[in-house]
Amino acid sequence: MDEEKEVIIAICKYVYTNWISKAKSQREFASKCDIEESTVRRIKNIALGTSKTDYNMSVKTIAKICRKKEVTLEELFQNIKK
Fold first, then answer.
1. Which molecular function term from Gene Ontology is one that the record holds (predicted)?
2. What ranges in 19-72 are assigned the alpha helix state H?
3. What is the pTM of this model?
């Protein structure tokens, strides 16, 4: 597996485990973060290893989620690194 794909998987796992799975619903999470519900489903499927396709999450999407969760990008990557 290439390094870029590993990073995306790590981000998806972190976002899903810490935020999406704790939200009332995927729709609510998407709405609060101003992203598409289909994006939330992609993140979930990558995190759970059930996706048959690759997903290249944009920095814009990551930034929107972090902004709503009041976490900087730096903090997110530090948490993922742990």
1. DNA binding
2. 26-33, 37-48, 59-68
3. 0.89
Instruction: Please write the tens of the pLDDT for every residue from 22-62.
Output: 999 999 999 999 999 999 999 999 999 998 778 889 999 99
**Cβ-contact 68, 30 below 8 angstroms:** no
Structural domains of the chain, ranges and CATH numbers in brackets: 3-81 (1.10.260)
Range 27-65 burial, b when 16+ CB lie within 10 A, else e: eebbeebebeeebbebbbbbbeeebeeeeebeeebbebb
